[in-house]
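Reopening: LysR family transcriptional regulator still failing for me.
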Amino acid sequence: MYFDNRLLETLVAYADNETVQGAADELMISQPTVTRNLQKLEDDIGVKLFNRSANKIELNTTGRLAAQRARELLDAQHQCIQEIQQYNFGQHHILLAATAPGPALFFTAHNPELPHIDNDLLEHNEVGQALMTYRYSAVFTTEEIFTDTIESFYIGEEYLCAHVDAKLLPADKGTVTFEELNHLRFLVLTGLGQWQTVIERNIPHAKFISQNDRDDFLEIIDNSTLAHFSTNLSTGIVRNTSRRRLRITDAEAILPLYLTYLISEKQRLQPVIDAYISAWPNDDALTMH
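Support: Ran it again with your exact input. Result attached.
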């Protein structure tokens, strides 16, 4: 049996508003049209959906079930159309996302010819759905995913550094541990992804001053002695040379990064995988924020 979407939409709108007037206003149609649509849907299904009296109409228990199923049908149809459109778009474009900010920061600045990486971070538990619905062609993840339909390919590692006022350090110091940083005050950008968890877990007694805006962050860095963090993927020119960049040696200061994708798309994505591996920074002398 085929149901006209307009009839289903009218039923859902009536269930949400509980009045003919409210459904009419939501759908921007007349009240008589709402009444006709509800009556036609009831006739098409062949069961009573409403309790009617002289001045009132309300959904009965069967009607409430019908409204719930109508909502599910409309949502499924919308999802189906969206997935088809996203799949078609993805056949002509490579769409990437990440669960950590480093890849987008680095490759946008240094390799703009590579596929764009969305700045909106995904949570790890969102990756599978984002791939299966063709929202993204591949996702940079800090954990491997292997299922019957998804796999991960190792691209490189991102490691964490601290920039600390040089006056507080011995002249020959080039590395540091989290324990040594636990008493400092840090200026941090929001949106650090998994690094936020790593930092807060390993230096719980440090004080963090958060900034949402990157320009404001850089201005404060230039005009203060606050410590801050960088990685081998973060970019920018450190204009305040009063700090020394120290690599953090703890194991948790390193995150592996993988490109995670649908196995069915691997052949199409292989040139992209190879390009990111080739472009991954391996020069520790990069100047970073």
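Residues 284-289 have pLDDT under 50 and may be disordered. If you still see a failure, please send the error message rather than a screenshot.
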